[in-house]
Design a protein that fits this description.
The protein is α+β, with helices and mostly antiparallel strands. It has a single domain, classed as Arc Repressor Mutant, subunit A (Orthogonal Bundle), CATH 1.10.10.10. Helix content is 31%, strand content 32%. It has 3 helices and 6 strands; from the N terminus they run βββαβααββ. The strands form 2 sheets. A 3-stranded antiparallel beta sheet has the order 1-2-3, with no helix packed on it. A 3-stranded antiparallel beta sheet has the order 4-6-5. Helix 1 packs across helix 3. The protein starts with a strand and ends with a strand. About 27% of the residues have low confidence.
Length: 114
C-alpha cells in the first residue's frame, strides 16, 4: 500500500515522498522513495496531488482556497490558488473532479460521488 508523505529538509525545502508499506511481508517493512522537490510544481503535479488526496479522502470536498490552504500543504505542496484552479479545470475536463455550485460558492469533490 502506498502512502503520500510530506518531508521537510534541513533547509526548509519541501519534498513529496511515497511510502510503500508491505503489511504482508515477513518484517512489515516500509520503504520511502523521494520523488522530487515540489516548491514550485507544475500544474500536472498539482493535479496528481489533488487526485492522490481524493483517493485517500474520498469524501473530501472544498473550494479552491481550501484545497490550496489545507489539502496540498498537508502533502508538502505550496502553490498559489491560480495554479490550483488550473489543475481543477483539467481534472474537471477529464471527469476526475465534480464541480458543485452552492449558494456560498463552488466546491470540488471526487466525481462519481453522490
Amino acid at each position: 500500500m502506498d502512502q503520500a508523505l510530506s518531508v521537510v529538509g534541513r533547509r526548509g525545502q519541501r519534498w513529496h515522498a511515497i511510502r510503500n508499506v508491505d503489511s504482508n511481508g515477513p518484517n512489515n517493512r516500509s520503504t520511502e522513495r523521494r520523488l522530487r522537490h515540489v516548491s514550485n510544481p507544475a500544474v500536472s503535479d498539482v493535479a496528481r496531488a489533488i487526485e492522490a488526496y481524493l483517493a485517500g479522502h474520498p469524501g473530501a470536498a472544498d473550494n479552491e482556497d481550501g484545497i490550496a490552504t489545507w489539502w496540498l500543504p498537508s502533502m508538502g505542496i505550496d502553490v498559489p490558488v491560480a495554479r490550483v484552479r488550473q489543475a481543477l479545470d483539467g481534472l474537471t475536463e477529464r471527469g476526475v473532479v465534480a464541480v458543485v455550485a452552492l449558494p456560498g460558492g463552488t466546491i470540488y469533490r471526487a466525481a462519481g460521488r453522490p
